[in-house]
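$ ./design --mode recover --in tokens.txt
reading tokens...
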């Protein structure tokens, strides 16, 4: 835990590590695919059908990844969050882990049901998901990102103003 202050932003919050961001991108891949399909217009439907032949699977993945997308959005607004959203932010590691385990179970189910049709990208995604789970559990920076609240934010959470003593 050397030089932990180097990982703080201008507001005193821990900057989410790049590996956390990459893991969030991995978990929210269905949202990114929808954005890419929307931008590509004519080929959008074909692109979505290529990755998600059954529309229900796409909707399931998007619903599963919704909390991760919210945490990606909240990470830049932490210094402005009301106290109730700060408490939600503090539970972000656990919520991300639940989403991660659910995603891994869905991937494992898909691979187990059709082992002969499992593609290399499916297997790589499963391995990356497992690696991200281990990183999420073991990283002290991820822990500090979700648990450390600067002193002025904790005063705001207690109901006092920043300048009140």
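writing sequence...
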């Amino acid at each position: 835990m050397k030089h932990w202050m180097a990982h703080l932003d201008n507001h005193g919050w821990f900057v989410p590590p790049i590996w956390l961001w990459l893991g969030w991108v991995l978990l929210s891949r269905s949202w990114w695919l929808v954005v890419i399909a929307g931008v590509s217009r004519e080929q959008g439907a074909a692109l979505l059908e290529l990755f998600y032949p059954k529309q229900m699977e796409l909707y399931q993945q998007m619903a599963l990844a919704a909390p991760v997308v919210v945490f990606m959005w909240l990470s830049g607004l932490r210094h402005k969050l009301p106290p109730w959203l700060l408490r939600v932010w503090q539970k972000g590691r656990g919520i991300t882990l639940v989403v991660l385990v659910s995603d891994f179970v869905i991937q494992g189910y898909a691979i187990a049901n059709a082992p002969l049709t499992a593609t290399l990208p499916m297997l790589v995604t499963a391995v990356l998901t497992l690696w991200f789970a281990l990183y999420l559990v073991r990283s002290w920076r991820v822990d500090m990102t979700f648990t450390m609240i600067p002193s002025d934010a904790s005063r705001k959470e207690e109901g006092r103003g920043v300048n009140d003593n």
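exit 0
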